[in-house]
Design brief:
48% helix, six-stranded parallel beta sheet, 214 residues
């Protein structure tokens, strides 16, 4: 994987500076830029394009949802990882709709932060189990239209594994089918549910009551 240029956007100086210090020691990171709110980030992004942004959800001046939407307009290929507190769960749906590719709790271990960055930078989505659990508690079946698409038993099986964070290769191995078959089922699920990415698909599954945390 190529070295990454990264933006760190958070209004808490101590958290931002501490995370920047840890990330600067990682050889995957080429450059780190900082902003303390969404407006600063958007103004800087026009002059300093990056590969990925770690974006706090709740900030003064401009919050993460607004910043994510504007950042997507500036650079549709930008990868966005939302930084979240447990108290931010009411914003998760809006953040996904704004284009987030992943979510990290702000109390995550640094190893988890690295894993999330690697997966999202590699074109995957990162959705921590803790955040899935929070979403399950705050979303319900009424959020999804009554005419839900027909999802086959095999698609439902694959959807459950997707919700638990398994890659297509891992799903193929678990179900003893080819990765190409898993790719096709995943795309069918995205098309049927009109989900723009895997994070939105997981959100749909939670809202529809298809996924239960055990």
């Amino acid at each position: 994987m190529k070295k990454l240029k990264l933006f760190l956007v958070d209004d808490h100086d101590l958290f931002r500076e501490g995370l920047k210090f840890l990330l600067s020691e990682w050889d995957l990171i080429e450059e780190i830029y900082e902003a303390e709110n969404g407006q600063q980030f958007i103004e800087s992004l026009r002059q300093r394009p990056v590969d990925l942004v770690l974006l706090d959800i709740e900030m003064p001046v401009m919050n993460g949802m607004e910043a994510a939407k504007l950042a997507r307009e500036i650079d549709p290929e930008l990868k966005i990882i939302a930084l979240s507190m447990y108290s931010d769960e009411n914003y998760y749906t809006s953040m996904i709709e704004s284009g987030a590719d992943g979510f990290l709790l702000k109390n995550s271990k640094f190893a988890t932060v690295k894993r999330a960055i690697e997966e999202v930078a590699g074109g995957k989505n990162y959705f921590s189990q803790e955040i899935v659990q929070l979403l399950v508690r705050h979303l319900n079946k009424q959020d999804v239209a009554k005419d839900n698409p027909v999802i086959t038993d095999r698609e439902m099986e694959i959807l459950g594994l997707i919700c638990r964070g398994h890659s297509n290769i891992e799903i193929a191995e678990a179900l003893q089918i080819s990765k190409r078959t898993v790719d096709k089922h995943r795309q069918n699920l995205l098309d049927k549910t009109q989900s723009r990415n895997t994070v939105a698909l997981v959100l749909y599954a939670i809202k529809a009551g298809y996924f239960n945390v055990r």
